[in-house]
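User: quick one
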Amino acid sequence: MKTIEVCFSPTLYHLYSNPEKTVIIIDVLRATSSICAAFEAGAKKILPIASIEDAYKAKQDGYILAAERDGKILDFADFGNSPDSFTPERVKNKIIAYSTTNGTQAIKMVNNAKNILIGAFVNISVLTNYLTNYPESVIIVCSGWKNKFCLEDTLCAGAIADTLLKSKKYSTNCDSTFAAIDLWNIAKDNLYTYLEKASHRNRLKNIVNENVIKYCYTIDATNVLPHYKDGFIEKLI
Amino acid sequence: MKTIEVCFSPTLYHLYSNPEKTVIIIDVLRATSSICAAFEAGAKKILPIASIEDAYKAKQDGYILAAERDGKILDFADFGNSPDSFTPERVKNKIIAYSTTNGTQAIKMVNNAKNILIGAFVNISVLTNYLTNYPESVIIVCSGWKNKFCLEDTLCAGAIADTLLKSKKYSTNCDSTFAAIDLWNIAKDNLYTYLEKASHRNRLKNIVNENVIKYCYTIDATNVLPHYKDGFIEKLI
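Assistant: Done. Structure below.
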């Protein structure tokens, strides 16, 4: 039977890494939510970039650049890291270079896996439907905050794992998966209120509009499943 | 106000490390539970050892040696890693060399902190009473299983953090602390049943007597507070 593991930090990924497994990268606030929003708005491709230096270089090379650090837009970027920045006017049929504090680093890090999917609350049904019919075991990687555990990514991992286990096509013997599912079950009926205490949610409080946070917590706000392949994120579904 | 952080794996410790803070090492199954049992049985000192090679050397040097890997006693050790192995007959007034899969490695790793305490369910009240009156912020380090997150250490961390927060002398803005407390609150009324699913509990199922597991989950089975100082673990209280 296919197995599920949840990895709570990119720093722990080497303990789980297995090129035969499918990796799902989660960064609810906000990279993977924004990536889904970008494809929903018609983006052609996204080039994830880890370092600020490489983001600057991409801008010089003529890319449209979305980039932030510590929640704030980089001054040489075209726009930042909020789903509502990825409007059809800005991104439709375009290739966007994208660099964030946590999520894009995590995407770049797992490039040894042969199947790398982008997960968030906003695309959870299309993701779990795909995985239910997909033959491989999964590792769900939470981007966290600067490699520390974070609540919102863990809840999203728990929601995905819970759905996959209920499909009866997956099993798990992974303590972080059990923990993520139990936390999801505490939070699911009132996600917004539960996540009031999350440290990154408070970090963004004076930087990001509340509607952005609410969007990132909206189950199935989009119908896209992006994947990372050959250096670019593209729409798989 | 004093702060609390919970670190879910020794691999993440560098993200939290601060020599001014007090570190509490937890390895419920079984190192820190056994260390408390050893001092309860009258042990004089414990020499924690990380590698199998150094454990062998300690035995050659004449130490009484308690040592296991992957739940099993090392063949050159006097006894293994269960609280019930540390009997008064074996350990009273003696110095014991001790090496385990996870816990003793974690203790050795944090040696930059000036105050390092040994925590477990079996000494939780003496530990939290001490901390409530102690002036420094704390980092609770879960030993985990081979650097992966584990449920039983997380619940114990949650129990400690919950008590400290309720004392009103500590605060937290740490997502792993929130998660540990929430998981503790799910599990606390039926710890033994909740932890049936824990991966390490299942790993030990055919190796360790059920009474050992039950002892390790027993709140306040001892009244000792061990600390690690100058290379040895000694009884602070």
